[in-house]
Here is the input.
Amino acid sequence: MQGYIYPNEFELQWSLLIVLYPYLTGLVAGAFILASLERVFNVREVQPTYRLALLTALAFLIVAPLPLMAHLGHPERAFEMFLTPNKRSAMAMFGFVYAWYLMVVLLLEIWFDYRRDIVIWARQSTGIRRWIYYGLTLGATDLSPRTLAFDDSAGRWITVIGIPSAFLLHGYVGFIFGSVKANPWWSSVLMPVVFLFSAIVSGIALVLVIYMLTTMLRWRKIDMACLDKLAQFLFYALIVDASLESLDFIHRLYEAEESIDILAQLVQNRLFISLIVLQLLIGTLIPLVALGFASPALRKGGFLRIPPELRQLIYLVAAVFVQIGIFSIRWNVVIGGQLFSKSLRGLTVYKVQLLGIEGLAMTMVLLALPFVILWVLAKLLPPWPDRVPQDDVAAT
Amino acid sequence: MPDAHDMPDSWPREAEPPKEVRVDRRAFLANLLAAAAAAGSPILLGAVRLPRLAAQDDGPYDASEHYYGIGLDVNKCIGCARCVAACKTENDVPLEPHYFNTWIERYILRTDGSVEVESPNGGLDGFAGIENAGTVLRTFFVPKLCNHCENPPCVQVCPVGATFVSQDGVVLVDEDYCVGCRYCIQACPYGARYLHPEKRVAGKCTFCYHRITKGLVPACVEACPTGARVFGELENRATPLARFMRFNDLQVLKPNLNTKPKAYYANLDYEVR
Amino acid sequence: MPQQVPRLLAVFAVVIAALIVARRVLTPPTFGELGHYRAVAVDSIAARPVKYAGRRACAACHSPVVEQHAGGNHAGVSCEVCHGPAAAHVAAPLDTKPVISRDRALCERCHAFNPSRPLGFAQIDTVMHNPRMPCIGCHRPHTPEPPVAPQDCSACHGQFARQKAVSRHAALACETCHETPVEHRTNPRAIRPTKPTTRAFCGQCHGSPDTGAPQVDLRTHNQSYVCWQCHYPHYPEAN
Here is the structure.
């Protein structure tokens, strides 16, 4: 600790778990936005990732409240946020945004998209699996062209509602930080927007990685047109994200408000590795350059002509770097905002615990859990294009 | 003869029948009116204010009749931290050095413009001497505590309504309802809140609510040996705080955040945050 | 109507109904009566135990000491600042007694010299001032006026003395510039020393040759100011 911190500021209040939480919801919003590219904006090339993106979003959305619950002083009282929510509190309203997004957007969209296939799988399965599938249909087993058309239309409408809902989901997390006037590192009008676009970046990158790995694990051929398109959108999203972060940075430096001295010290002394190296260099610059050259974003067929296998490797590495960078952004915002004193006169340190409910081990478990859930979901509702079942029973 | 201290068997005593006295009724009434006018005119004209009767004798405590604030005179604080010790005792605050409802900061302003601030264990460990005393421009102590703001950001962000402003202007925490999300601790610009390590709920200064509702003053005000802390009510003339606010040029901490604090500092230096 | 719609509506209706019922059943009874909080919380906070009895409680039994104390220099110091929390003692006077340390450390808490303390507050140099003797050996704690009037100005005005001692004015006695009635030593707040008010005062040394002091032409040197606006008298070379 150097300089002066208020005595009560010695303990950091929001720990690694609270870094994890915006990371997870960001992936949800980003994966959903990617799925909506195909559904609403008819980007045909990314069709193979459509269902994968939806299931990824669901898997991460299920895990997202867990770090919050683990962090609460009294998790058994968490339901109070639904009983007596304080309408002026962003955190309270977020509970409802989350519920809305889960129930009305994501689950409904998945249901409408999968319903036909669930009905067919129900007919084709036996035993407990058959009951699970029938339960999932909610009894709507009609597969006539009219009902299928309704599925399609409903899905499109839900996606249209879902895009602003996804914006709201993660923009709200940004607002939870951005509306805290007591903290000059957080308090910013740009915070929700930066959070949102970094979420889109991380979501696209995640789906890219999952698509590549799952396709390879299943010994299928990677659809290069799809992958190129994903990389292209990742590049565009990175451009917007980098621009917004640069704008925030330049704005702060230009206005040079009272907090600029301690914040400069914060970045140089406490956040050098996580901000300059991980967020900027590894998370933004290197992927921008790599994707700019390799993907068809700047020129059709790629700025440099790179053979497909090498392109795949570049995309994979770039996407992993992006994940590291986006996680670093969450770290820099959450932890960074608590490493300096509100007296603007001192810095403190954060010691990550290894074990314990807020420790590194718990974080690793919570990071792995969505993949486990995704695996279960993929087993139950296979998202692969080659696993769409044929309807061998005449529709009634 | 019954003694003045003896209670008669029947009490209150019935009025004795008046003795027969011849009084001119007109003269009596005229005198009565003159006396009443003489006595009552200053009151009627407002030159003499009838003193507000003490609330203690008026039945149970009514929160809507009070509105509390605190005055802090920086020029009187000697940094003895008796207030910090009294608060920790009175409110069972954990004794570790990072849980304080109130604490003392020392500022050392040097002639080269640099500022050193320290608060060793909130002031409980005492303050050391100053090195290079020749380069000191000014040095002083500042008591800090929850400001019990009128527009409190901590109350605004509490998701469940566990922290609130009472009717008498005190920001309190409902320890049986708080979920321990710590948003209020992040939102407080003054570092006044902490998470209680055992109870796992938010903790802060309560203005010793359990004392002020009984007519006592907060423990820190009771303990201050120099009268640097002045407790009282706003919107009330007969309270020490009213005199404090009338006689001193006042400042509040971080006024630009519009939290409307009710901790008023007299003789506050511009370097205090 | 396609068959999906009624089924979905049924699911949502059940969920929403469950939420409404839960809200009605589980919301705490006093919530919302006074504001967005449980009204009963105010009462439970107000019912916490009191540990410090307050000044008025002591006067009921200990009136002689309290009267003495009210006439002395410690009149503003509450009994419990030194004697500790006494609410338990007030409730059961014979069962518990407040303990008080008779050690120097108790008094030094407030009265040890610290440059950050305000001027005019009684402070001692703990090393020089009767070391290792208990304070109460000379000072009655309830009326702590010093047993003998201080000999030297530096006994109370240590900070000025320290500054002056390393300055060009070190050889000047305080009385050179400040006329000090003898009563100031025993009644310092009411009877004060004087302070110079004119440039001519400093001119007695600094405007008259043959005094050995640095000379200045008072007619031309910054005539619109008094000397101490720029030159700090206790450390004149600092500016």
User: Anything to note?
Assistant: The two ends of chain B are 71 Å apart (CA to CA).
